Amino acid sequence: MSNLDRRPPARDLGGLAGTPARPVLDLLPGKEVLLGESTHVRRLLPTLGRRMVGAWVFVDHYGPDNIATAPGMQVPPHPHTGLQTVSWLLEGEVHHLDSLGSDVRIRPGELALMTAGHGIAHAEQSPATHPRFLHGAQLWVALPDTDREVAPHFEHQRTLPGFGSDGLTATVLMGSFGDVTSPGRAYTPLVGVDLDLAAGADVEIPLEPDFEYALLTSAGAARVDDVVLAPGAMLYLGTGRRVLRLRATEASRLLLLGGEPFEERLVMWWNFVGRAGEEIAAYAEQWNRESDRFGAVVGYDGDRLAAPPLPPVPLMARGRVR
Predict the structure, then answer these.
(1) N or C: fewer beta carbons within 10 Å in the chain?
(2) How many domains does the chain fold into?
(3) Stated pTM of the model
């Protein structure tokens, strides 16, 4: 999925100074963003006061939207570098095309994991004939410096591992949770888990004290400690937790994201993650002149997105330092 903002700000990401070495309960403000022609999303990361959770650098939550008489998701070809995209559907269907030749229909419960690395382009669309509702999350993971130039690749995991207990069904998208490990390839210690809570569930889930975590409520309303999370809300939990209590008075879906705090300083602008402003400017120039770096998305009927103008001030990875 693309950041379609025509004036995207440069984000200074990474570093440990802003990572509390203790549990916290910070409700993160979301921002309504129009994605493509008709899809509205809630952008929850990066946001004011919180730019990363582990290596997770970008979280969009969309739906549930009734698209029975609408085109649904329509995101033209666009580029990425230095990151992984993680697509997670709760309802609907999305057609993924990329410059590697991948041509995949993504459905609920399946993991679409695209590693951009050196550079890739892709497009995402609701098929012409599509389910009535569209609901899901689009996530980005920053690649560490050792792997950010890795050859691009795409994984489509139709079946993911998980477990159920006491009104909780957990599905592991990325990383390990308890004794369960996702088949999706991760490049830093992190975790992403879909938590499906039955009405009346009251459970404790295990956490890694060295990880920082956040919880997104996809549907329903769950109580985390003494905070009730409404749909579309995201709660940052900090570090230092070994267990987390979740209670649901109604059926609820949560997305747990976590990982070791990311030490490297990054620049994120538009759909690129780099280490310096000069890199980002080069990526944008290469994309606009149709460089071989990103390839072409074959099979998409329409124009690709152009990179927007760069900001008038230099892009710098000032970030936060230890």
Answers:
(1) C
(2) 1
(3) 0.92
Q: Is 278 assigned a ligand-binding role in the annotation?
A: no
For the chain, the average pLDDT equals: 91
Is residue 78 part of an annotated ligand binding site?
yes
Q: CB–CB of 105/95 below 8 Å?
A: yes
80 is in an annotated binding site: yes
**pLDDT per residue as tens digits for the range 293-319:** 999 999 999 999 999 999 888 876 544
Is 16 a domain residue?
no
- Kindly state whether residue 5 falls inside one of the protein's structural domains: no
Closest CA to 174 of 55, 52, 81: 55
Is 130 marked as a binding-site residue? no
